[in-house]
Design brief:
45% of the residues lie in helices and 20% in strands. By secondary structure, it is α+β, with helices and mostly antiparallel strands. The model has no long low-confidence stretch (mean pLDDT 88).
C-alpha cells in the first residue's frame, strides 16, 4: 500500500495531563477517534480485542478509532492523553488501513513534544476523565471546530507534532490486509470510494473479471472476510461517524450509504452496534 502524507488529515480533539488514583476504570469504550497516551508515572491496563496491555512509564500507546476497549486502574497513574480525529475527506482512511502496534518505546524527545502539544491546545484539556462526558456529539463537533479555528501557525505546529508521534507507531505498522492479488486490492479501493453506492458481489466480481464463486473465495483468502462482511463493516463505521458528526435524519444516512430500505439499515446497524441508529445518536447527544 502506498499512501501520500498529504492525505493524512489529523485534528487534535483533546490533549492534556491526567492524574488518577485508582479511578481510571471505564468499560466498553468505543469512539470515532483514536487515542494516544504517554505514561509518566504508575501503571494501568487497557483491555483490547487483541489482549490485555499494561501501561508503563516512558512508553507511547495507541488505540485506533472504533475499537472497543476497557481501562483498569487500581493505583496511582499519571499520563498524557491525545485524542486524534482523522478526516479522510471521502478518501480511504490511512490509519484504518494500517495495523499499528499498541505500544512503542518513546523517543528521547517525545515527552517534550507531548508537553508542547498540550501547551498549544489548553482549551482542549478534558474537564473529566469519564468518556461519557466528552465522547458525544456536542463535544466532538465543538472540538473539531476549535481545531479548525486555531491560528494557522498553531495548527501547523500541533499537526507536525502529531505526525512525529504517530511516526513512532507507523515505523512498525503493517497493512491490515496483506492483499497480494491486484484484482482484490483494486476491489478494496473501489469499495472505499463507492461506500455510498449499492455494492454487491455480482458487481464486484464483474469488475474483477472473475466468476462470483471464485471472487468470493479469493476475496476471503486475501482479506479474511467475505465481500459482504467487508462492505457491511465499512458502511457501519461510516454510519456511526455520520450519526454523531451530523444532524442528518437516519433515513438520509441510510440513503447516503446506499440502503434503499431504511428498516433494513436499522436492522443491520442494530445487529452490529447492539442498538438502533436513533439510540446510538441519542446516547451521544444526551451527555
Amino acid at each position: 500500500m502506498n499512501f501520500s502524507v498529504d492525505k493524512l488529515h489529523l485534528s487534535t480533539l483533546n490533549a492534556g495531563l491526567a492524574n488518577h488514583y485508582g479511578d481510571w476504570n471505564w468499560k466498553d469504550v468505543r469512539s470515532p477517534f483514536a487515542r494516544m497516551y504517554y505514561v509518566t508515572e504508575g501503571t494501568a491496563q487497557i483491555k483490547l480485542p487483541s489482549g490485555l496491555y499494561t501501561l508503563t512509564p516512558g512508553h507511547l500507546y495507541f488505540i485506533p478509532a472504533f475499537t472497543t476497549h476497557s481501562y483498569i486502574c487500581n493505583t496511582a497513574f499519571t499520563h498524557y492523553y491525545i485524542h486524534i480525529y482523522e478526516d479522510s475527506q471521502d478518501e480511504s482512511s490511512i490509519l484504518d488501513e494500517w495495523e499499528l502496534p499498541v505500544e512503542v518505546k518513546a523517543g528521547e524527545h517525545d515527552l517534550e513534544l507531548v508537553k508542547r502539544l498540550c501547551q498549544s491546545c489548553p482549551s482542549l484539556r478534558l474537564q473529566q476523565s469519564n468518556p461519557k462526558t466528552y465522547d458525544n456529539h456536542r463535544t466532538l463537533i465543538n472540538n473539531i471546530l476549535l481545531d479548525q479555528q486555531r491560528p494557522f501557525c498553531n495548527k501547523v505546529e500541533t499537526r507536525g507534532i502529531l505526525f512525529i508521534l504517530l511516526s513512532r507507531f507507523l515505523k512498525y505498522a503493517t497493512p491490515k490486509s496483506e492483499v497480494k492479488d491486484s484484482r482484490i486490492q483494486q476491489t478494496l479501493t473501489y469499495i472505499r470510494r463507492n461506500i455510498g453506492n449499492r455494492l454487491n458481489v455480482s458487481i464486484l466480481a464483474d469488475k474483477a473479471c472473475m466468476s462470483e464463486d471464485y471472487f468470493i473465495r479469493i476475496f476471503k483468502h486475501e482479506t479474511g472476510e467475505t465481500p459482504n462482511a467487508y462492505i457491511t463493516h465499512r458502511k457501519q463505521e461510516k454510519a456511526e461517524l455520520t450519526l454523531i458528526t451530523t444532524d442528518l435524519p437516519v433515513k438520509s444516512i441510510a440513503d447516503l450509504l446506499g440502503y434503499d430500505d431504511c428498516s433494513y439499515f436499522n436492522k443491520i446497524f442494530k445487529k452490529n452496534a447492539g442498538m438502533t441508529p436513533r439510540q446510538y445518536r441519542e446516547n451521544h447527544f444526551k451527555h
